[in-house]
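Entry type: protein chain
Record version: 2
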Amino acid sequence: MLIAAGVFAILLGVIHSILGELLIFKKLRHKTVVPTQGGSLLAARQLRILWASWHLVTLFGWSLGAILWTIAFASSSHVDVIGMITYNIAAIMLCSALLVLFATKGKHPGWVVLTLISVLTLLS
């Protein structure tokens, strides 16, 4: 179950970054990697940190996925540490799911995958 949770976390990160670039940031850049065309709503510096934060979420997801994958193959000699780590990952994934569910009124499917990762991690 931890392998599946890790794979889902990594895939969610990939999809998050690709769709973010295609659906949000593509329209906000002009011949640059980092978008700067925020119009009247966002200054260039605000859009830059929004873009960086967007991709930080992906990097954190990949990191948690890698940790889950590693724990799946770890020896059981450190059960207490492994339990603490998996519990914390499950908790943060569940909190993230609830945040996305609340913020989007259930219309963004990310909360489903985050909940799945949480449940798989808790059941491991």
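Comment: Residues 2-123 form one domain.
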